[in-house]
Amino acid sequence: MDNLPPLPEIHLTNNLTGVIEILEGIVGITYPNRPCLPMDQMMRNLCLLYIGRVNQCDRQVARHLMVWLGMRGFAPEPEEVMDVLQQTKIVEELMVQGLMHKIPREFPITTDQLPNPHPILYLRHEDPPRAVTFTSSRLKVAFVQGDEIQRLTVEARSSAIPQRGITKHRLQFQVEPDDQPSIEERLAWLTGNSWAQAVDTYAPMRVLSCNARGPANPAFDQTMEALRNEHQPDLFIITEVRVFGDRAHAIRNNLGFDEMFEIKPEGFSGGIWFL
Q: Residue 210 in contact with residue 121, Cβ under 8 Å?
């Protein structure tokens, strides 16, 4: 954004440095660099949640952070976001969207109270990025062979538990019914605590799942390609892609998968890619 006012000098304590690291992860820039474009409402709300808590301790620093992010004139003053009802609504919205999995408490903020600042998150947000393997020869056939992709139905849901500060994402894969095995053999589950049930007669399938948080990740395409090259998944699931049009088409081509489809379930901002 052009014509941003200069940043005044402030003293950053360890706690404030931690907050700045979180804001860097949300916006996708490094302090004191300035954002080149205005943020959308969701990103402003997430930033305001932390800036408002800084404001409880130091109003000057809170205003400094708003100037840094170009939020003066686009967002309320820091003290306005500390209304309990408004803050609760912001937290609930962010939890449903999968951007927050713990309810933050009073300032100073500790690391365990903050959303993961890194742009790549997994379906279970407490977990580090990793590839997993589950078993189902049918799911593998359905994804690898394009003429059989329609045999697979996918149900995606997200749910927030405000009392515990936990957001769960669940994907259910189901091959359309036929005259063959029981329903247990036609289902594979991905949940926050366990992956699919193993069946000895089925071939293993390597699945890589990550939450892309597109706007917070300026290197979206390079990051996805690096993950794909590192783990070599049979199935690559990317949630909250928020990338559309020609750029999305180019990214999918660069990842080198033969087939893909996209769904937009409620609670997953920007949709989900299955590659």
A: yes
| Alpha carbon distances (Å) from 211 to 151, 175, 217, 225 | 25, 24, 11, 14
Degrees to nearest 5, angle at CA 134 with 130 and 140: 110
C-alpha span between 151 and 148 (Å, rounded): 6
pLDDT digits (tens, 9 = 90+) for 192-218: 333 333 333 333 456 676 766 655 566
Q: How many helices (H) and strands (E) does the chain have?
A: 7, 8
In this structure, which amino acid lies at residue 260?
Answer: M
CA distances from 145 to 72, 135, 260 (A): 52, 17, 11
What CA–CA distances, in Å, run from 262 to 58, 150, 212? 45, 13, 14
| Phi/psi of residue 120, nearest 5 degrees | -100, 115
Distance of alpha carbon 270 from alpha carbon 243, whole angstroms:
7
pLDDT value of residue 182? 41
Confirm whether 9 is domain-assigned. Answer: no
Cβ neighbourhood burial of 144 (10 Å; 0-12, 13-18, 19+): middle
The verdict on 139 and 250 lying in the same domain is yes
* Distance (Å, whole) CA 120 – CA 118: 6
Range of the domain at 23: 14-113
Number of domains present in the structure of the chain: 2
DSSP code, position 9:
P
* Both structure tokens of 118: 């890194």
Is residue 135 domain-shared with residue 42, that is, in the same domain? no
